[in-house]
Amino acid sequence: MNICEGILSLKPYQGGKPISELQRELGLDKVVKLASNENPIGPGPKSMEAIAEAIDEVGRYPDGNGFELKRAISKRLGIDNKLISLGNGSNELLELIARLYLCNSDDEVIFSQYSFIVYSLVSQSLGAKSIVTPAIDFGHDLKSMLSSITKNTKLIYIANPNNPTGTLLSDDEVYDFLSNVPSSVAVVLDQAYFEYLDIDDNALEWLDEFSNLIITRTFSKAYGLAGLRVGYSLSSLEIADYINRVRQPFNVSHIAQSAAVAALTDEAFMARSIMANNNGLLQLSHGFDRLGLVYIPSSANFIALKVSNAVSVYESLLVRGFIVRPVEMDNYLRVSVGTKNENDDFLEALESVLGEE
Questions:
Q1: How many angstroms separate the CA atoms of 270 and 263, rounded?
Q2: Residues 126-138: pLDDT tens digits?
Q3: What are the residue boundaries of the structural domains of the chain, listed by start?
């Protein structure tokens, strides 16, 4: 078969093991999933109300232009709605953007070691050359990324906060980096976990200065809508137009759009979501400290934890009904923040597993 070369050796993305799958495999009644960086408290009440009201419309195609959702994002961020593109999760936008810039095997895309695996997957599937710069303190080495730019560089991905390490670049660092990237090279600033940060939204102002900047965000994390798959990007009018050309015509469902519009107005839920995450990070960190474990301080809704044998610990936790995520780092597991009770139960299970190592 004449399959594209980049796809022949491509390994499919493996999401966190579903709860139902583990229940089937091991016959467990109770399973706690701490593998996919989902919001443990789920959607907010306003989103749930919007979902219920939107069900009657599922027999019709959604608004392909996402007018109401773009208007809500525009109002929330104070940005022209013509600069907004919608995606089936921000994950789809990461791929659509790659399709715009990675056209042949000579094209290069730069991203950091220990970064979101989708950057590598979409680049390889398009046959482009991935330039992976060594991480520094588990995060992006922006100087190394700048020095890796060549005449063939078309695209750069930066996740901030970074997944799976949770590391955070300062606004000054990112701004300085953008100032030194040639305008011909597109830079994707992946801010999937932005809402968890207690910082000013300075990146929006950079869009006026850097025509090559594309910001991606999602409703899957702090907004608790991971199962509905809805995200968005912010970019120049020109780039937004190109994204619109390659996206599928109805890529975000009516229910997803309705829930996201409502989520943007639910200030009380967002405050509760952020507080639960902050408390959960402290809870897990203190637990790891008590167990004498090494971990990477996180600015997201997960923590990367070092153990002696990640595969063994992961499998032992599965038997006990706890799903975490092995990552592409030497003996590290990524643990998503759960509810207080889930975190307590996980730490108890982890202590038991480590006692058997």
A1: 8
A2: 999 999 999 999 9
A3: 5-42+267-356, 47-263
